[in-house]
Prior knowledge:
Blueprint: H1 24-37, E1 43-44, H2 56-67, H3 80-91, E2 102-105, H4 109-119, E3 125-130, H5 134-142, E4 146-153, E5 159-160, H6 162-168, E6 173-179, H7 191-203, E7 207-211, E8 237-242, E9 255-258, H8 264-275, H9 280-291, H10 295-316, E10 331-332, H11 337-343, H12 347-358, E11 360-361, E12 363-364, E13 376-379, H13 384-399
Helix pairs in contact: 2-9, 3-9, 4-5, 4-8, 10-13
Amino acid sequence: MPTSAPTAAHIPLAARLDDLRTESAFVVLARAKELERQGRQILHVEIGEPDFPTAPHIVEAAVRALHDGETRYGPAGGLLDLRVAIANHLTSFGIAAEPDNIVVTPGSKPILFYAALALLEHGDEALIPDPAYPIYDSAVRFAGAHPITYRLDSSNDFSPDVDAIAASITARTRVLVLNTPQNPTGGVIDAARLAALAELAIANDLVVIVDEIYRPFNYDGAPVPSITTLPGMRERCILVDGFSKAYAMTGWRLGFGLFPAPLAPRFALLALNDHACVPAFVQRAGIAALTGTQEPLRAMIAEFAARRALVAERLAAIPGVRMRAPAGAFYAFPDVSAITNASGITAAQLADTLLQNFGVALLPGTAFGAAGEGHLRLSFSASRIDLDRALTIVARCFGTLPH
């Protein structure tokens, strides 16, 4: 006998799920892929993913580990060999690091969520940049705390306003989140400002979560300064980093955190409860990335520097666009407010027009916070040919709008 289809049951969900935020880059990527399935040609400058392949010696290390039978459970905090390699890597940047203070995770996002869950009680406050990587906001809200945003100064390489941050601190403020080089702006926080932020953190007993995953992508020739190297800060910083960007390993899912000594075992326990361990063959690939030749990384940085120059020059030449070359990361964050204001549209509407009508997938600045209004984010992790084509189309689109 035919049976009727089951009706959907009403399953009440915990309110905390309402506090999770999406990552617009993946939303736009999915929309772009759907348009491609419909036969449209789309130029992708929306996703922050290097277009370089993972270096062969890294892939070979993983394959060798699989052939050697490294397919069983491992320590929750990560293989000792990898933690030693990470410690040596960080030490080369002047960051004091011991293997026992490092926890390896499947990507860097778990460290952000673990930090929020470990440090923030319900009703606490965390200071996060605006615009910023949206997972900061999501992790803080998921922990039941309140994200308090501080704006980045677009006239000064998107530097944090130390005075404004100081004015935002209350009795419930527990955490300060920093990102340098920054997503989405490409800004790099200079040493003087980091020193002022360190003084502020110490004076107000704040823990600093510093996301340095874009550290290698710096275009002025000098190493990116780290707040973790300043006096008194290693003991109150959680450093977030990973392999996705520098080693073109986005799909491998390999990240890590560096913690003050008392915290590392507790974060390893969070890892154990969450995912048990990162696959050993992935960790062997990470060891090869850090200890093997760095020539693929150097070649990628050189190519990204050329793309940065192309993108900055082409955007600056478009009437109505204000653009300065980003100091780091691999994103351009042009100010298109003259166009959006004159046209009476939002940055999100402009980005949607570019995708739907012109076949260019990029992100509105508001995907990273309210302060991103009037901006777009373009990733230059695409080929120069594709960037040239995308920028030609962007200029043509903007030429049809008042400014």
